[in-house]
Amino acid sequence: MNKIEHIGIAVRNLGESIKLYEKLLNTPCYKTETVASEHVDTAFFLNGPNKIELLASTEPDGVIAKFIDKKGEGIHHIAFDVDDIHAEMERLRNEGFILLNEQPKKGADNKLICFVHPKNTNGVLIELCQEMR
């Protein structure tokens, strides 16, 4: 794992949250995107070398909606940049981690992604991200 790629924050209302984070971070949202396969709308912010991703559910029973119902709005996951997602997934499987995806899938911001089950990571959902080439 190279670095933290972004921190994902679950929000109820993306439009309101974009305005809030633009004020908070004093920077505009640089990209919004819908990831239909995950039933989420996303918004991205750069804060120095760091990225923040806001996630809002597009479905009342989507993963983000369920997360918010259970835990409220807030940090949903921490994503790490990797050079080779397939190799990193294999390494983690061999170390005994449970992956939520058998194969990487297309995520937001031109990334291949895979999630590591939070039961293995002290309750933190970890996302692996590799730039699609």
Order of the strands making up the biggest sheet = 2-3-4-1-5-8-7-6
What portion of residues belong to β-strands?
Answer: 35-45%
pLDDT under 50 segments (min length 5)? none
Number of separate helices: 3
What structural class do the secondary elements suggest? alpha+beta
Rg over CA atoms, rounded to whole Å, is 14 Å
SSE string, helix = H, strand = E?
A: EHEEEHEHEEE
- The end-to-end distance, rounded to whole angstroms, is 18 Å
Percent helix: 10-25%
Q: Biggest sheet, open or closed, and with what strands and sense?
A: 8 strands, mixed
Give the number of DSSP strands: 8
Mean pLDDT: 96
Shape: globular
